[in-house]
Amino acid sequence: MRKICAxxxxxxxxxxxxxxxxxxxxxxDPVVRSQRLLQGAWTLQWMKGGDVAKxxxxxxxxxxxxxxxxxxSGFNGCNNYFGTIKVEGDKLFFxxxxxxxxxxxxxxxxxxxxxxxxxxxxFKVADSNSLELSTAQGVALRFTRLPKxxxxxNQPKNK
Length: 159
Hints:
Largest sheet: 9 strands, antiparallel
CATH class: Mainly Beta
Strand content: 25-35%
Order of helices and strands: HHEHEEEEEHEEEH
Distance between the termini: 31 Å
Number of domains: 1
Radius of gyration: 18 Å
Structural class: alpha+beta
Helix content: 25-40%
């Protein structure tokens, strides 16, 4: 019976993706906090070199990040996109190019958004509701967090 409990406990630990870590003084580790805050769904508010309202008149691009499973997905103004990421501190690494659906859309510059998001190197979450994604040239995209209900609907389903 002890062996069964030990095996169940061991197997269960592999299925739990993220556990909040605390520093010795009882506060959450800043890296863990940053990654926890990155988790969720975000809507585009600003983009380097483009007017978001004019480029995406019908629906703004979205990004949904699941740090625990290393997934990124979203909507680029025309098509859905998806990929695999690795987060280390404030660094965001894409494991290969992002994939996307291939619908044809008029009057939407989805490529501008995709070219910027594919170049992202770092992130910063401010006040837990504002996300900045930066390339080597500086801040490229700014997002605001979607409300929890929308946030859950836009989370990647692949685990």
